[in-house]
Specification:
It is a single chain. The protein has 153 residues and is mostly helical. It is built from three helices and no strands. It is 78% helix and 0% strand. Helix 1 packs parallel to helix 3 and helix 2 runs antiparallel to helix 3. The longest helix is centred in the C-terminal third of the chain and has 46 residues.
């Protein structure tokens, strides 16, 4: 029975390492998709949606940091379970934490960048609509007044 426990404890860090590596591959694929979305963004709404997307991504990365810190704390509290592979597990968990923290920072920067572009586009749209002469007549206020009402003072 003791050998079964030893085998289980030897396989556990290897499986967690494989799971962590698989998650990093997904981030690389997601990064190329993000670049394509950013290149296609042209309007205020596009950039506003991108800023919301990056805000959500930053929150997800912060959640992953918290998750990895919990697993690292679990390791540090019970390092005797992991044997020789424990140091590999610890260094990999620390690397994941650094990676997700940086990804969270980068996503926050991207969100701020797209928010700034969205604001500039919105301001430019308002300025452009006032400068176009054929639109000047389109900004009139239209209202129906009751013919029986008196003058408005």
């Amino acid at each position: 029975m003791n050998t079964k426990l030893g085998k289980y404890l030897a396989v556990l860090p290897i499986l967690s390492l494989l799971v962590a590596c698989a998650q990093m591959g997904q981030l690389e694929i997601q990064d190329t998709d993000d670049r394509k979305m950013a290149q296609k963004a042209k309007t205020h709404n596009d950039h506003n949606n991108l800023s919301n997307y990056y805000d959500n991504l930053a929150k997800e990365m912060a959640a992953k940091v918290a998750e990895k810190k919990e697993s690292l704390e679990e390791y540090e509290d019970h390092s005797y379970y992991y044997g020789r592979q424990g140091q590999d597990f610890k260094s990999h968990a620390e690397a994941n934490i650094r990676h997700y923290e940086q990804a969270s920072i980068d996503a926050s920067k991207q969100a701020d960048f797209h928010r700034k572009i969205a604001a500039e586009l919105l301001q430019h749209d308002y300025a452009a609509s006032a400068e176009i002469p054929e639109q000047e007549g389109n900004h009139k206020i239209k209202a129906k007044l009751n013919p029986n009402s008196g003058p408005l003072y």
